[in-house]
Design a protein that fits this description.
This protein has one domain: Beta Barrel (OB fold (Dihydrolipoamide Acetyltransferase, E2P)), CATH 2.40.50. Helices cover 11% and strands 53% of the residues. It is built from two helices and five strands; from the N terminus they run E-E-E-H-H-E-E. Strands 3-2-1-4-5 form a five-stranded antiparallel sheet. The radius of gyration is 13 Å and the shape is globular. 14% of the residues are buried.
Length: 91
């Protein structure tokens, strides 16, 4: 599924818990009705691009290709972020 939207928040978490595998979970907005509100950048993708950081992607527009894995888990196959921040920083 192709998504366009804005990264509302981003954080790193271990999956599965207690492992050394880190993923970045993106909470997104503006993707449209029926589309996922959270998508996951898998560990392998984070290793491919060490510039990906929760603080640098938060508030930026994105375009992504995501696939449903399991029940409600949406995993990013490809993603691009806009260079400029769209949302204001949290105060």
């Amino acid at each position: 599924m192709r998504l366009h939207g804005i990264v509302q928040s981003a954080h790193l978490e271990e999956n599965p818990p207690g492992s050394d595998t880190i993923e970045m979970v993106l909470r997104v907005q503006g993707v449209g009705p029926g589309h996922p509100r959270a998508i996951v950048l898998p560990f392998e993708r984070l290793l491919q691009d060490p510039t990906l950081d929760p603080e640098t992607v938060q508030g930026h527009a994105f375009e992504a290709e995501v696939d449903r894995v399991g029940g409600a888990r949406w995993v990013v196959a490809e993603i691009q972020f806009a260079e400029r921040r769209i949302l204001r920083p949290n105060e």
